[in-house]
Amino acid sequence: IPDKIKQLNNEYSEIEKKGIPLFNLNFKHRVDVWNITLATIRKKLINLETAGVMDMLDSIQNEIEELREQLYSEVSDKDEFSRDSDALYSKVIDLEKVFLKICSILPQIRSFYLISDEQEKRIEELKESMNKLGSSKRALDNFVHSSTKQPYSILKKKLDDLQNDYDTAKIGVHEFKSYLDSLKSSSEDAYTMVFVYYYRCKQIESLLREMGIENFTAQYTAQVENCYTLLNNIDVTLKVRPINVESVNEMVEQLKSSANSLFDEVENKYREEQLAESAIVYANRDRNHQADVHQQLSVLEKSFFQGEFVKVYHEANNVYKRTHVEDSDNAR
Question: Which one of 96, 151, 185, 324 is separated from 202 by 20 to 30 angstroms, measured CA to CA?
Answer without folding.
Answer: 185
